[in-house]
Amino acid sequence: MSISMIWDHFSLVLSALILAIAAGVPLGLLAYLFPRVGKALLWVVDLIQTIPALALLGVIMVVTGPGSPAAMLGLALYSLLPIVRNCSLGLSQVPAHLKEAAAGMGMGPVYRLFHVDIPLSVPMLVTGIRIAAVNAIGTAVFASFVGGGGLGGLFYTATRQRNMGQLMLGTAALMAMALALDAGLGYVERRLSSSHRKHLPVPAKAAGGAVLALAGIALVVSMLLPADTSGQLTLYDGDYSEVKLMHAMVKQLVEDKTGLDVVILDQMTQVNNHNELRGENSTCDLMFSYDGTVLTTFLGMDTSDIPEGESLYDFVNRTVKEREGLRLLGKVGLNNTYSIGVTQSVIDRYGVTYISDLVPIAGELNFGAEHEFYTEEGSMKYQPFVDFYGLQFRSAKPVDVVLKYNAVEGGAFDVMVVYATDGLNKRSGLTILEDDLGFFPEYYGAFLVREDLFDDFYDVAPNLEQVLELLTGQVSSEDMVELTYAVDVDGRPVAEVAHKFLLSKGLLSTQNT
């Protein structure tokens, strides 16, 4: 965790809060002044609050694209409810006798609103803002799923690696942010309350308000502006160590052997990364993926669609080029297909070697996998799998992909779907069973690139394609198991592990990371 990550998280929350206040206070006033309209407004903001954070961010990202704008807008929408409701409630709770006194003094409705009602409702409004701020700090960890940065990636990685030190450090940072922001807003509340307000000259008030307004606008605008990656090879970081490692290798190789700078932006899922790679307005240049993932997830096809006599890799490469203007470079060597892992207790008790060996004992075993494996889309899923092998497990439960290794190590599962090259298989003591009937397809790793990538960078790096192809056939499945183990279990930095591997293969001309 770095200071820049903390600042990214805090600035994201602060900018979202500014947007929420700018929209929420007028909506609260509208709800107070027009009660019938107010009911509908409150119903809408209530409804927004019920939408899962990831779903809301995903919908917004489709419209705005990935990055800070999507995360900021999502957090702002999530922060509306306490601000709108407390603004409306605070105004409605101004005592009637004070309103009558103001009217008796000759105040009109508008003058009374700004000089009586709003000042008296400030404590309730600021309370709503304080609630929204604290909630936003916690919700902002989901921003990393749409490339919004912040501390979400740290929590994701630390949970997967069972790194309690990083989890506690990240939690402490969030708590410190919440306390600081809450204390700051409490100070603002006291300054705005009538009993503590100092009678500053009007020019001083105007100048102070203008400075704060300009600072808020500048922060929001800075979050909306896209990162300047012109003239740089651009990638998004992966949400798994395997992808992180391969992208780190690209950065080190390209910068070592060409005059091109490589920038790796905030982490993103494979699906979102693919969406940002394809099309005319792509925001990145390449990504590490797998031919099986491109077939089933990106293209929405199955192995049954592959013509007889054509390999999965060749079919995928031809199809993705025709449909999306993308192509795969050479296979790097690893085959990260779905696999079935069993615990050491299953091995000791039953001595299984093949998936077929599970058929007579499945009724005694608990099966686990990530939620995606239980969906109905595609053929590489739970129900087709158990039907294909004739398996009937005692139980089959979904678990979050980040937590599944913790679950199997805690004894929740006896059998689990894993990725073949995941170093956590080794940590958890899982034995990979042989897919003797050939249910799972190949998932060979390769870089998916824009078809016009090498033309775009020819002037700066005419050898870019040759440099990237240096990784073809260099990273075996066994290599990746050791590499991900070094990152996920030993806790070594991704860049360091990638650098040492490239040196061992003789692919770098420098010793510096």
Folded structure, characterized:
This protein is α/β, with parallel strands linked by helices and 513 residues long. It has three domains: 3-224, MetI-like fold, CATH 1.10.3720.10; 232-335 and 443-504, 3-Layer(aba) Sandwich (D-Maltodextrin-Binding Protein, domain 2); 338-433, Osmoprotection protein (prox), domain 2 (D-Maltodextrin-Binding Protein, domain 2, 3-Layer(aba) Sandwich). It is 56% helix and 9% strand. It contains 22 helices and ten strands. Strands 7-6-8-5-9 form a five-stranded mixed β-sheet. A three-stranded antiparallel β-sheet has the order 3-10-4. The protein has a two-stranded parallel ribbon with strand order 1-2. Helix 2 (35-50) runs antiparallel to helix 5. The longest helix is centred in the N-terminal third of the chain and has 31 residues, at 3-33.
Radius of gyration: 28 Å
User: What is the helix fraction of residues, given as a range?
Assistant: 55-70%
Can you tell me the residue ranges where pLDDT is under 50 for at least 5 consecutive residues? none
Within the CATH hierarchy, at the fold level, what is the topology of the largest domain? MetI-like fold
> Termini separation (Å)?
19 Å
Coarse structural class:
alpha/beta
What number of domains? 3
Arithmetic mean of pLDDT: 86
Q: What's the architecture of the largest domain in CATH terms? A: Orthogonal Bundle
Reading off the top of the CATH hierarchy, the class of the largest domain is best stated as Mainly Alpha
Q: Name the CATH superfamily assignment of the largest domain.
A: MetI-like
Instruction: Report the principal-axis shape.
Output: globular
Number of helical regions: 22
What percent strand?
5-15%
Question: How can the largest sheet be summarized?
Answer: 5 strands, mixed
Number of E-type strands: 10
Q: Spatial order of the strands in the main sheet?
A: 7-6-8-5-9
